[in-house]
Amino acid sequence: MAVYKDTKQMYEILGGLWSQLLEHPENGKKFRDAGLNIKYNLSDPAGTLWVTPGGVLTGDQNLKADVEMSLAGDTAHKFWLKELSLPAALAKKLIVSKGSMAKVMKMLPLLKPLHEMYPAVSDKYNLPG
């Protein structure tokens, strides 16, 4: 059974998390200044999440992705709980990536506040883990 009950819940949780990063006074500015459009192709449940300098979008968009990542919702959940690192997920092909991973790896330190917040979000939604 998938961690997220449906696409709507997954968008609410993951989209909300990314929105918090974009609103973060220091890290949000750094992320926006990087100018990256990141597209997440999610499965189980299926959905598409975009993280752009202008905000978080869902579904098909008329945008060009600088980086595109395909992964299961369960993999995203484990990543945010820090049970799985991005390099390990890439090596195990739990995340398949296209585009500049060098740019993404530079952004990883900006995610620290989100990693700290996610366990409380997970608890709020009664997610396993």
UniProtKB/TrEMBL annotation:
Domain of life: Bacteria
The protein's name in its UniProt record: SCP-2 sterol transfer family protein
InterPro entries in UniProt: SCP2_sterol-bd_dom_sf
